[in-house]
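Quick start: load a record and inspect it. Here is DNA starvation/stationary phase protection protein:
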Amino acid sequence: MNDIDIGINAEDREKVAEGLKRLLADSYTLYLQTHNFHWNVSGPQFRELHLMFEEHYTELAVAVDDIAERIRTLGIAAPGTYKEFARLSSIEEVEGTPSSEQMVDILTKGHEQVVKTSREVLKLAQSADDESTVALVSDRMRIHEKTSWMLRATRS
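Running the structure step on this input writes:
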């Protein structure tokens, strides 16, 4: 591949990409949890949660692709294995099948964690003057903040 000359030096691209790898791992882990809960939710709110979880994992599937492609745009290999995601993710795996109420709580915390990870990456991107990553991460934060609010609203 030719040298990358997009106005961001190699060291900054590496730092931003490392942050994006953590965001990708958190997003992919949350995608898997959400899909799992979509399949396994039960109870009085089944239909509402089943459909909501489907909306969420569909949106996350697009997000992980966008994040991985941004990492590649910066000239860095994107992680793509469960082992790498488990090492990089701040979101814990869930054992068994939680109740629908627990699913909502787990996913709320997962979306909030993605927001926190995004804030860390945002600082790296801002210091590197990387507006493309800033825009991507800002959009991700907005979506996860709104999603966590919507999930919390189902529990009131």
